[in-house]
Amino acid sequence: MELLIKNGAVFDPKNGIKGDKTDISIKDGKIVSNVSSKATVIDAGGRLVMAGGVDAHSHIAGAKVNVGRMMRPEDTRSGISPRTKITRPCTGYTVPNVYAMGYRYAQMGYTTVFEAAQAIMKARHTHEELEEIPIIDKGALTLFGSNWPTMDFVREKNMDKLAAYVAWGLLASRGFGVKCVNPGGGEMWGFGKNVTGIDDVVPVFDVTPKEIIVSLMKVNEMLGLPHSVHLHCNNLGNPGNYKTTLASMELANQVKASKDRQVMHVTHLLFNSWGGTNWGDFESKADEVANYLNNHDNVTGDMGQMIFGSATTMTADGPKQYANAKLLHAKWSNGDVELEDASGVVPIYYVKQISVHAIMWAIGLELALLTKDPYKMLLTTDHPNGGPFVNYSEVIALLMSNKKRQEEIKTVHEAVHAKNKLPGLDRELDFSEIAIMTRAGTAKVLGLLDTKGHLGVGADADISIYDIKPDQIDPSVEHAKIKSAFSNAAYTIKGGQVVVKDGQITATPLGRTYWVDAKVPEEHHTEMMKDIVKKFKNYYSIQLANYMVQDEYVTHPQVIKTGAIPVEVN
Amino acid sequence: MQTVTIRPMKEIKISVEGENISPDKFGGKTEKEIQSLVAWMGNQKTTIGDLFSVKVEGSGPAADTKIVLEGDFSRVKRIGEGMTAGLILINGNVDMHLGAKMSGGKISVKGNVDSWAGREMKGGELIIEGNAAYYLGAGYRGESCGMRGGKITVMGNALDFVGEHMCGGEIIVNGNTGILPGLSNNGGKIVIGGNTSRPGSEMSKGTIIVNGKVEEMIPVFKLEGDEAVDAVTYKKYTGDVVVGGKGILYVK
Amino acid sequence: MTVITDALCPFCGCVCDDLTIVVENNKITDIKNACKLGAAKIMGHHRIEAPMMRADKKSDFKEVSYEEAINEAAQILFKSKRPLMFGWASALCEVHKKGILLAEEVGAIIDNTATVCHAPSTLAVHEKGLPTATLGQIKNRSDVVVFWGSNPVHAHPRHMGRYSVFAKGFFQEKGRKGRKVIVVDVRKTETAGMADEFVQVQQGSDYLVISALRAILSGHADVVPESVGGISKEQLVKLVDTLKAAKFGSIFFGMGLTQSISRYKNIDNAISLITELNAFTKYVISPMRGHYNVTGFGQVCSWETGFATAVDFARGAPYYNPGETAANDVLLRKETDAAMIIAGDAGAHFPADSVRHLARIPVVQIDPYWNATTEVSNVVIPVAICGVEVEGTAYRMDGVSLRMRKMIEPTLPTDVEVLERITERVRELRGE
User: Fold this and answer.
1) Beta strands in A158-297 (DSSP E)
2) Is C119-287 in CATH node 3.40.228.10?
3) Confidence band for C74, pLDDT divided at 50, 70 and 90
4) Cystine design at A137: which of A180, A199, A511, A558 (Cβ 3.0–4.6 Å)?
5) Fold of C48-116+292-430
6) In Å, how far is C67's CA from the nearest CA of chain A?
7) What residue ranges of chain A have pLDDT lower than 50?
8) C322 vs B179: CB contact, 8 Å cut-off?
9) Are A161 and A531 in contact (CB under 8 A)?
């Protein structure tokens, strides 16, 4: 199968292409240097061409998402479209059904999405849902931050056993990377408590979040995993938490990356860049966080941008979610996973006239505008916590147009003038920077830049064409056109196959599930398993033999093999 | 002034979804245009004209349109859904979701209505001479607000969950109601002429007046004393105390 | 002889996964660790050997080929204007997926056995959410365990031993001795007999009692009368104190709450009680699901359609409104003009008027066993037994996904194959 995309105005930051008219040749699902005359030709007509979008953090599959659906029929009914000849029915807005999840990402030109968090014990469920999400390539990050084995090995200071556990946990969950959410907090929430900072000691297990984070970073690099530790900082959503965020980021200096990427990725920074001491004096500290990123190359972040309107907060930060529900008088679901982690789901409605919401909205944008290098600040909405992913085009338009931002600022609570820097920021990101924040940067952060996020030879043939001519449009003024173009791709090509044309789904192939198979020395694995066997014998409620995700649940695997590397410690 | 009279041409067993039977959808249309409006019956997509005889007199916009439903509409749902103006007169019984999400105009029913009449109503008036069923003037599953405005009057009785999640508007039931009227009331007014049970659970605002007997009170109300409303003396309760509610429950 | 260890039980929502199954000559000859109910399910009993059909429900069945039965089933569904596809709870998730697809294709209502069981719990979750935990969390931490309207000794025999009462856990090393067990029920059940405290509530008064507990908990004991639902105020106050004193409290509830007056509002109220208790100490609530994979249907249906059950595909897109789209809603209104009943016994568990209506319309049954539904069926298609002869996915009552084993080889087609063939035939009839 050969395809040739001609006359596209290509933005391929990895390969230094910034709008040049470049042809893209595709053969058998990969980008190649040229194709034969038999190739199908798509004339991009001078329109914007980028690699297919890559999302590093989105809650698209698994127990939390499904609880969200179950508790929100009012959300399900808000986004319904019937089945067509090639598509199943779509439902939902903040918690779409599996089909909508895949189709809507593809319609925006996205082709790779990673589920932000799965507990090992519930990974089978996550994969059942991932299997049914059409089109996109996908994967899931596995939670390790509050697991009993993690804390035991951290306390014992046994990095070999911890590395073996992480390797085994990734296999057991068919996970792609190490996710750490409010480390230590998941265990505290088992008795309704929480940690308040990285130095709190988790009782009985006798470890601190700081120790957990550093240890996981060490083993992550020992294993040479493609992605770095992916951290949801302690103290999320509490005024003043920026200090915890900075202290957490500083921990990255204790470990050296095993690859050409960050050693720590801090997620949805919007919720962790807060100053003040309470809701009254709450203010933005996005500048402090961005400043740290500007001065350090070993940490990256993503926005977690908030979109006004309906959202559903869902996270493994169980205690935070309970507090949220109480504050909002909202319905609340909680899902403790024995020996592993917690989770909470709470619907929310973000309102322009509520000062806290307006300040939050501005914080997300500040993070992107104040971080100089777009490779260090990825575009996310922490779907659906900040807002549903279908609104990414809104975020793109806001980042590219100060005019749009100023118009929006006029409609939100005036607190943004006192509590944020946003009104005074006039930076406007260009197409290249957007391509980095949504493709090249994400791929690099995930360790997938060889095949994703770029349009050079060897890349997967995942391409999006948008209905804008970059040399003929002024994004600052024509931000509405930017938004509508990025909402509905003119073409989305996945693995060399056209899956979207003019915003309509034309094919629904099944994508691949990325997971990491990490090797450790046999003795380390054997030693580690002794502890695991004991845990199953005494504490888990299922048998070890029934725990690990079986092959049947990952029918289109893309396995990345890694091995143990001695880690350099600073 | 436009008057449209419709009558089922045969017995309807599988319920018909009649959301196109509305002054907004009929107003200013010819007989032929109205006949070609879509109606679903089970999994069959059909037309108004296929199911009902249609007679049109005059023409006018929605606000000047009167729809008269003759015959048995007890298996026709969603009539008047989302209407903003005009009048619907139903001479018999009617199925679920009558006047759901309506924001204006008036619906008058001589017979009984099935469940969810006036669901998520925003305005306008709904008059039921017979009985209502479950979830009168209530919301949709999971929504925090049901009825927000408008007025529903039932001359007969209603079943459980009258005005669940009400945020505004007024519901008057002359007869008895089932259990849990005014559940999670957040700002509406409910008047019950007859008996009821377990009223006002989790109400945070709004008013419920019961003129008959309350079979069971939920133990979440504070008795404030006696108060006269429209020259009738009631026991006045405030609550639901558990949710810090400032709702008022008057019981004769 | 083969010995299968760590096998999973396809009977109740406990989905015990520590069974040992001995197989000889493709027959199960011994089962270890299962309770009586599970063992009986796995051993099986006399099953339907071949497909059968009858045009008139009063006549005897005639044995037919799978081809004929599948063709007839497809015809029935294809011609139907208001089909109902019901059951699902004793089948695997792989079957549910095929069922939902077929329901979409024929514009049917799809509903599961929860409709007479825990569907009210789902309605409550729409209102209040579900603050819960996996069963191991209870085993390791819970020191106050409440069974409300639930009698596990009878309906979930190994629940207390494996998860909630006798099990020893990390923070509950003493097992039973470290836990306080409270039973709230209308009569003294077997479970109440072994509890530390039995609270007897008047029939239909659970809602009032829960409200009273919430009032006391929120500091408003003054508005609570001297007696609520047959329980003295003094006892209610003491109960609240007991609940508050827990380090990790758990409430398990069953039909006593979901099926008595106020139904889903009982659960709704109970969930709010749990949420409010969380202001003082850790609490979770957990439904005691009946069939081993009723939870699975809710999960699959939720991720595929956005709604947990009772989904109406008549207009090509999912519509959900229990009270309108649940199985008995349409059956009691006599709207259903054809039904497929699979892995669920509507004939035994539905109200008499629903069953009477089923007797009037074409009914296709897909099940390994002859049961009450067979009596009102026209087409009967026997299949392999899920979880015994067919492997696949099931969800335990706490939402943990597990893979059921194949213990013996099937001799009949599977549910998945049958549904696939019916779907294919329906598409042919439609001219695709």
Assistant:
1) 177-181, 229-232, 264-266, 274-275, 283-284
2) yes
3) very high
4) A511
5) Rossmann fold (3.40.50)
6) 27
7) 568-570
8) no
9) yes
